[in-house]
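BUG-151 | component: ligand-complex export | severity: low

The export step for adenosine-5'-diphosphate jobs runs without errors, but we want the raw record kept on the ticket for reference. Input record follows.
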Amino acid sequence: YAGKKNTVSLTESMMNLKVKDFQSMPVIVSENMTVYDAILHIFLEDVGTLFVADKDNHLQGVLSRKDLLRTSIGSQDLNKIPVNIIMTRMPNISYCSKKDSLILAANKLIEHEIDSLPVVEETEEGLEIVGRLTKTNITKAFISLAETHDL
Ligand code: ADP
């Protein structure tokens, strides 16, 4: 069986990397969570980006570290500001689906200069959040490619 894995070209392996094989768990908060609690959440869950959803888990917004820092600098009462007034909201959110190629997702991250994409399933009612795809996931895929091809 030696050498079997190298019968697939590097190009082919790269095109076969899918979002579903490298995605992480999403960290989801509700629209009425306060900015203060969102900051606590970022630390507790150890993520860089929170996704904001309605009660049915449909994507409403994205909150990054910088969104939270920007609001904190203003030094208003962070316990009184709900995240939905500072988040980036639909329809301005870039997202991907499980079956997408990682190359497509990586392109979206670079094109929009962002750290993560919500992984969603499109339904009649909206975009249901099923995962999170980050630059770290892309980096892990890059390593797996090197390992598969004995680079
Ligand atoms: P940070 O600001 O912590 O460096 P990002 O670079 O990911 O994190 O975020 C930059 C800006 O882009 C923020 O205002 C954030 O709300 C927004 N953003 C983050 N992810 C997305 C996304 N998937 N689609 C659209 N906007 C996003």
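Assignee comment: Attached the raw record above. Residues 6 and 148 are 8 Å apart (CA to CA).
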